[in-house]
Amino acid sequence: MKRIGCAILAVLMLGMLFAGCGSADSESNMIFVGKKGKVQTVDIEEFDKSYYSEEDFKTFAQEAIDEYNMSHEVDAITLTELVVKDEMAKLKMEYKTVSDFSNFNEITLYQGSVTSAVSEGYLFDVDFSKVEKGEVTGNATRADVLAEEGLSVVIIKANTNVKIEGTICYVSTANVTVTGKDTVAIYDEENTSLTTDVCTYIIYK
């Protein structure tokens, strides 16, 4: 489904910058992943009306979502807002599960317990930073992460900002900046495209 999901974004941007939100009022570029796997996203970017009308874009976006929902669970993806104002377009979407997000956009995204992630083949074979009160306080190892009980994890392969429902305890160090108790920014200077080959681990309670 990447051809559909990315086609929506390509029409929106002409130079892609993908993002999501933690609440309906959020204006920041961020993917929000809830504890039960629900995903909310918002994309904000310049919109050139000389190429596309706002109404045509709304129709295109809704048709792409409807096509996905017809072959999956009803309302697996919902378009919650699409507005164009002052030559900026804002697209908000909700995904019922992380699988719906991954399938639609062809971006690796996992949410669950650390124990389940290990069982599903995620190796956690990277360097980690310990996080307290939204700040990095030191280094951590795979053993440190796996030894602590009751932790959840979001794993993503993308250059974007991520917000989780909880408090971050550890993050993988590569390309990650901790920006708050529940938020990180991911940016790979050597690969600035949306999708990457690098697994970013965000471990939280």
Tell me briefly what this model is.
With 205 residues, the protein is an alpha+beta fold.
Descriptive report:
With 205 residues, the chain is α+β, with helices and mostly antiparallel strands. The chain has five helices and 13 strands. The protein has helices at residues 2-13, 54-70, 98-105, 114-119, 142-147, and strands spanning 31-33, 39-46, 77-85, 88-95, 109-113, 128-132, 135-140, 152-158, 161-164, 168-172, 176-178, 183-186, 195-204. Strands 3-4-2-1-9-12-11 form a seven-stranded mixed sheet. Helix 1 packs antiparallel against helix 2. The radius of gyration is 17 Å and the shape is globular. The relative contact order is 0.17. The model is unreliable at 10-25 (pLDDT under 50).
Residue stretches low in confidence (pLDDT < 50, at least 5 long) are 10-25
Classify the secondary structure makeup into a structural class.
alpha+beta
So how many helices?
5
Largest sheet geometry: 7 strands, mixed
Termini separation comes to: 32 Å
Q: How much of the residues is beta strand, in percent?
A: 35-45%
| Strand order of the biggest β-sheet | 3-4-2-1-9-12-11
How many DSSP-defined strands?
Answer: 13
What shape does the CA trace take?
Answer: globular
Task: Write the H/E string, N to C.
Answer: HEEHEEHEHEEHEEEEEE
Radius of gyration: 17 Å
Helix content: 10-25%
**Nearest-integer average pLDDT:** 85
